[in-house]
Amino acid sequence: MTALLPEGFHDRLPPFADAAAAVEARVLEAARLHGYERADPPLIEFAQALASRLKAGGLHDAVRFVDPVSQRTLALRPDLTAQVARIAATRMGHHPRPVRLSYAGTVVKLRASQLAPAREWRQIGAELIGLDSVAAATEIVRVAVEALSAAGATGISIDFTLPDLVDTLAAGPLPVAAEQVGPLRERLDAKDAGGVAAIAPDYLPLVEAAGPFASAIERLRRLDVHGVLASRLDGLEAIAAALGDGVAMTLDPTERHGFEYQSWLGFSLFVAGPPREVGRGGTYTLIHEDGREEKATGFSLYADAIVATAPKAERRRLFLPVGTPHADGAALRGQGWVTVQALEADDTPQAQLCTHVWTGGVPQRL
Amino acid sequence: MTALLPEGFHDRLPPFADAAAAVEARVLEAARLHGYERADPPLIEFAQALASRLKAGGLHDAVRFVDPVSQRTLALRPDLTAQVARIAATRMGHHPRPVRLSYAGTVVKLRASQLAPAREWRQIGAELIGLDSVAAATEIVRVAVEALSAAGATGISIDFTLPDLVDTLAAGPLPVAAEQVGPLRERLDAKDAGGVAAIAPDYLPLVEAAGPFASAIERLRRLDVHGVLASRLDGLEAIAAALGDGVAMTLDPTERHGFEYQSWLGFSLFVAGPPREVGRGGTYTLIHEDGREEKATGFSLYADAIVATAPKAERRRLFLPVGTPHADGAALRGQGWVTVQALEADDTPQAQLCTHVWTGGVPQRL
One of this protein's GO BP terms (chains A, B) (predicted)? Predict the structure, then answer.
C-alpha cells in the first residue's frame, strides 16, 4: 500500500529524471543567453496574493491549507507566472524596464482534468516584464523556439491566437450586448456555428477563421473592414516574418482555452511527438501594489512533455573493480567518465548497468 | 499586503537564484560522475507512506491536507530521503544492489524551528542503497566532499557521530534500564554531566568525548574495554584515512540531534562562512513492502547555505542596440555571450545591467 502514489502524482526514475533535468537546464540556458535571469519564488504563498496579481487571473483548483503561524490561508502555486509577476512588481519594482526573468519550478493542482491528468508538474519559462509590443512578443516567441530546439525537440510549430479579439470587435464595429460577450466567446471557442449565429451572426466568419497562418490572416483582414484589428494582424505578420520558414505556424483567432489572462496575443507550442501542446505564452497585464497596471509577455514550457520527444542519450558507465585506487577513478572522472566503483567483490559491470570496465590503461567496452 | 510572503518562505532573486541553480547543478554533476542517477519523486504523497519508509523515521511537522480524489491524507514531503528509499524499495526493488540515486527537490515544513527558520528549502543529495559498510560510507563522504568542493565551497570540515553508540553500550557492557536509555541519550546530547551521572555514571567519559578526530577516537578506544565499539572505530578511522588531510575532521560521538533515523554512522558537513551545517548524512535502514529491512548510506546538502559562500561569478551582459540583426545576436550568443536586445530606442546598457555593448565588430566593455 505504501508503494502507491496518489492519483496524478508520479515518480520520475533514471534515466528519464536525468533527461528531464537536462531538458530543463537547456531551456533555462537558452533563456539565459538572451539575458533572462532566474527568479525562484517559494512553492507556497498567501492564497490571496497568488490570486490577485494578474489581471483576469484567478486561483483555480489550488491546494490550500491554513497556516498555523499566520492563521491565514496559504496555497501551493498552480502556476508560476503570477509569482514572477509579483516579484517584478514588488521586490524588482525599482528595476528599469523591461525586466527579463526565467524560472523553473513545481506547480500543483488539487484536482486533475481529463485533458491534463497530472496534478504536479514542472513549469519552465521566461517573462519579459514591461512590454507587450511586437518586438517583445517576437523575442519571447524566438526564445521559446530556441529553448525547444536546444532541448532536442523537432517539428516545432506555433498556433497563435488573439485572446481579446471578441472583446475588441464587440466594443467596436460589431457590437454585442455585454452579457452576451461571454456566451459568444464560448460558442466561438467551441466552433459552434449554430450557437454563434443565434447570438451574433456577424461573427460567423470567425467560426471558420482558424487554419494555416497566411490564409487565416487573410480571412481576418477581409472581416476587419473597420481596421480595428489592423495593428494586431500587422503584429502577427511581423512576428511570423521574424521567425522565418523553420517554424510551422497556424492561427486560431478565437481559441480562448488556457488563455484566460492573456491580452492581445497568445500562442501554443507543439513539437513532433506528443499530441498535446508542450508550452504556451502570450501578452498579459500585471497589477502593482498601487493598482497600476503593467504590460508583460512570456512563455511557459512543460518539461515532461518535451523529454518524451528528446533523443535518448547513450548511458556510458565505467565499472571500476574493487580495489581500484581512488586517484585512478578521479583521473577517469576528470576525463569525463561516469565511474561506478565496485564496493564488494561480487558486484559486476552488468549489475551496475555499465558499458565499460577499467582494469588499468584504456576503458574496455563490454 | 499581497507583496508579503508567509513567514519562513522566501523569493530567490537574480543573481542569487542563478547561483543557487548553478550550485545545485554542480553538486548533482559530482554525484553523476560517481554513477548516481537522478530520481525525482513527487512533492506530495500519502502521509502514511512518507512516515513508514525509514526505520525510526517519522513525519514531523509536514503540511497535510485531505485529498478530494482519494479522501486520504496527503502530505508535502519534509525530507527527500524517505521518498528515494521508497523508490529504491519498490519501483527499483528488482535492480541489483547497490543502487545509486541522486536528487534535488523542494521540501516543506508546516512550522519552522528557531535553528531553522525557513519552512521551505532545496534538499540535494545522493543515496547508496543496499550497503552501509565502511566502503559505502567512504564513497558517500567522498562524493559529499567533492560536491561541496565543486560547488565552490572552501574550508570543508566533517563532524562525525555514532548515532547508535548509547544503544550499543547499553545493550552490552554498560547496561542501562530500557526506560532510561532515552533520557540518558538526551542528557549526553546536552553534554549535561550532572544529568548523565544521575542516570548512569559509567557514561560520564562520553560527556567529554567530543573533539578533534584523532583524540576523540583515542578516548573512545580507552572507554571501549570490551571492544563492542571496535568495528565502528576502525570504520571511522578507515574513512578518515581515505579522506586524507584536505578535510578537517571532528568526532562528537553522542550527538543525536538531526540523526533520528541514522544507524552506526552520522556526519555533519561544514564549510567556511556559514555558522550552521550545510549538509549531513550517514547510514540508515529502509523498510520494504514485505517488512524486510535494507541498509543504506547517503547525504543531503542545503543549496542556500552553500550558495552564500560560493565565489561570485561576474555578470557579463552584452547590450545589443535597437535594430541589431537577429543573426548577429545569434552569432554572439554562439560565442558564449549573454545578449540583451534593446526593444525600444530609449533602453540603455546601464538600465539592463550590461557590462558590454555591441555596435559591430568586437564587444566593447563599458
Answer: histidyl-tRNA aminoacylation
Instruction: Tell me the chain A residues in contact with residue B40 when contact means C-beta distances shorter than 8 Å.
Output: 11-13, 17, 20-21
* A5 → closest Cβ in B45, B53, B64: B45
Superfamily for the A1-154+258-313 domain: Bira Bifunctional Protein; Domain 2 (3.30.930.10)
Give the CA radius of gyration of chain B. 25
Distance from CA of A273 to the nearest CA of B (A): 23
Q: Tens of pLDDT along B131-150?
A: 999 999 999 999 999 999 99
CA distance B27 to chain A (A): 13
Among candidates B46, B120, B348 on the partner chain, residue whose Cβ is nearest the Cβ of A43: B120
Q: Is the separation of the CB atoms in A83 and A129 below 8 Å?
A: no
Chain segment A122-157, per-residue pLDDT in tens: 999 999 999 999 999 999 999 999 999 999 999 999
Q: What share of chain B in percent tops pLDDT 90?
A: 81
The pLDDT score that the predictor gives to residue A2 is 59
Q: Which residues contact A226 (CB under 8 A, 6 or more apart)?
A: A172, A173
Spatial CA neighbour of A333 closest among B345, B33, B278:
B33
Topology of the domain comprising B1-152+277-299: BirA Bifunctional Protein; domain 2 (3.30.930)
Residues A207-262: tens digit of each pLDDT: 888 999 999 999 999 989 889 999 999 999 999 999 988 899 999 999 887 788 88
Domain ranges of chain B: 1-152+277-299, 318-365
User: Per residue, what are the HEC states of B227-258?
Assistant: CCCHHHHHHHHHHHHHHHHHCEEEECCCCCCC
**Shortest CA gap B148–chain A (Å):** 16
